[in-house]
Amino acid sequence: MDRLTLVKRILGLAVLIVALGFPLIVTQPTMVNFAILILMAAQLGVAWNILGGYAGQVSLGHAVFYGIGAYTSSVLAAKFGLSPWLGMLAGGAIASGFALLIGWPCFRLKGHYFAMATLAIAAIVEVLVTNWDYVEGAIGIYLPMTNSGWAGMVFTRSKTPYFYIALGLLLLSLLVSRILQKSYIGYYFRAIKEDPDAARSLGINLARYKLVAIAASAFLTAMGGTLYAQKELFIDPGSVLAGSLSIKIALIAILGGVGTLFGPVVGALVLIAIEEFTRQIFGSTGMGTDMIIYGGIIVIIAMFSPGGIAGLLGEWERAWRARRKLVYTPPGDGI
Amino acid sequence: MTHAPLLAVEGLHMMFGGLVANRDISFSVGEGQIIGLIGPNGAGKTTLFNCLAGYYRPSAGTIRFNGVAVGGQTPEEAARRGIARTFQIVRIFPEMTVLENVMVGAMLRTKKVAAARAAAENELVFIGLDHRSDVKAAQLTVSEQKRLEVARALATHPRLILLDEVMAGLTPTEVREASQMVVRIRDRGISSIIVEHVMEGIMPISNRIIVLDAGVKIAEDAPAAIARNPAVIAAYLGE
Ligand SMILES: Nc1ncnc2c1ncn2[C@@H]1O[C@H](COP(=O)(O)OP(=O)(O)OP(=O)(O)O)[C@@H](O)[C@H]1O
Ligand SMILES: [Mg+2]
What we know:
The complex is a heterodimer of chains A (about 325) and B (about 240). Chain A has about 325 residues and is mostly helical.
């Protein structure tokens, strides 16, 4: 392990400790809420990254999985009194099932066409849910506040528990990413992303591994949806199924750096900070300002750093290692 | 079981719309053989490879591999059965390291990453690229990339390897090395079909040479006889 790796490990541990202690030190509700927003955004970015980053299948419809998670647990809680913890798993399972269903035909499409198909499907689902009376259509679902406490995942006095749930979900998503990335599946994802025809010549069944990616990604995204529902205690199509949400989820990962473990976390930090900052300047979420910001960010990334923030850091790291190698390579060893 | 050849192709046709890229092609490849496949540009060599490796579904005819009819197989099925290939225009995974490229190939036979790494390291030693293991594949020279493709294909443990112009653009010394490499692959018990325009590369090592011209097999013979074959000479001079 070289010095840079050590520094990275220590930095990671420090960030984790700070994160764990954050709500104990910072008690201001707005700050805690800000931190929760970052954690939730980071979790979504990490989940999206499994499909869009590692496997290279850019989805512009991830709100559909988020919405399925939010709606499944909310309907089960509101109508059947089921614990949101179970609802979270049910939502994940349904989202994965739906992902497999749409993945099957959509993965026959290449590149931009896949992205467009996901965009279209998400838009259709939003319209369907808006007109679906059983789930209260455009009115939305209010969640019962009676079950206050950990069992019901409802916390009305302090938002701190949501912070820890969001942190837990983020760590879970990072863990799943890491396990996939380190296993043969992670190698297959990268191979599929870089050259699908070559991947096939090595016996890789493209559809199978893309389906693995979309199912895992959808499950984790849906879990995030349940957390959102429990935190807000109200959902409607506009808040959990919106097209702008799909764009935002993709952008978190793209801004931070696709195909890297912590890129989406950095992306979330920057994106949420920008959002909150502009919200304070321009007032509440005026429709449109979000999209203008997203558009601006996409232009900047495309022009200056297609690898996102992590891509820039990676370049610095490589430069650093290259310099070090030059210094430490004993003469005659370089041939 | 009777002693069937490793690969037996019978009456293979491949059409693209009205264009017949392969017409009524029959031949077979035995265990441990090196078969040269030559012909002018556009003769249908790469198309034939694409049919054998499952990238194209032949319009007619049969392909038997190891006694099994494999005509409509997918590329991934071909790989699993033991037909490996390289691409005329190299298709490496550019952002992966050299070692990782080969590991992906090895993962066909073992899903354990450590075992795949060990297997890949061996292949890189075999092919002579072990000193470049940790370099990004994109940074290799084209001739190194071609060798990387061979190592990656070998890592899938094939019984037959299809090499599409791996000697193009090499210096005479490199061509000799590449020929020796094919012989060493044969010595591992792997048969090969090798498409080449570089005659010095395949004439000395091939058991037989098959000649395609405008989609038709015009000759199949020992290398020395092929060089004297009037139809072959005509096909090359007629260009
Ligand atoms: N996918 C395709 N669609 C339509 N036509 C094709 C396709 N692939 C090949 N062809 C045509 O089939 C014929 C044979 O091409 P092929 O690439 O097999 O030749 P080749 O012998 O490999 O030539 P070269 O030595 O230049 O590589 C050519 O006329 C080519 O244009
Ligand atoms: Mg060709």
